[in-house]
Predict the structure.
Amino acid sequence: MEKKLQYLDWLSSGFFHKLYAGTTANEAEPFINQLVQYLQPAPGSRVLDSACGTGFNCRHLAAKGFDVTGVDAATANIEAAKPMEKEGLEFYLHDLRLPFWGNYFHVALNLFTSFGFYRTRREHDNAIRTIASGLQSNGLLVIDYPNTHYEESRLKTQESKQLGETQYEWKRWQTETSFFKTITVSDPSLPAPLEYNIERAKFSLGDFTDMLSFQKMQVQEVFGNYQLAPYHLNDTPRLIVIAKKID
């Protein structure tokens, strides 16, 4: 069985995009609409989508009249997004742990669990620094992360799903500091099943508050789901943090 150890292998694979195609259409667009309504960015605002995937969110935001830049560390994702570039919509292959544009964006987004996969806290701090440094003064950052406390008590240790001829199987477990999962994909097009092994940090609201404050970002609001309902420590599935850059 071929082992894929890096999270980017999974997040940029065709099997990942096949699995979540319906979720993207049904969940992402309404959530983006909710965020725009809440944040009220000025027409033409410059928006960074950090870890943009193949660019669905970027395209939707550009259609609303914003100047959108998407960055992703997966070559396959950016190659898929690049053909859709136009005025006000561009994509770059970039690792968030490294510096990007400074003091440029009005809004930065990190959505749908695109964080938490680096090996060390320093690497996560570097990614937050890159995003925060890209914002102008009073710029807003939205981080959408699973609620660790909610997930800890509801973790499904085994799960499977059939999608067409593709079979997906998940095995999940946790330690004090991380969630782990092994995703096995079987498909007639494959000579052997593919296996993806992923670790994600158990970050809490306190962790994000600390990481953000170190980059002169102040938490403004916290929501608990994609309808922007209030966050509750043990009872809401998401941890959606809105922070402002305070110079």
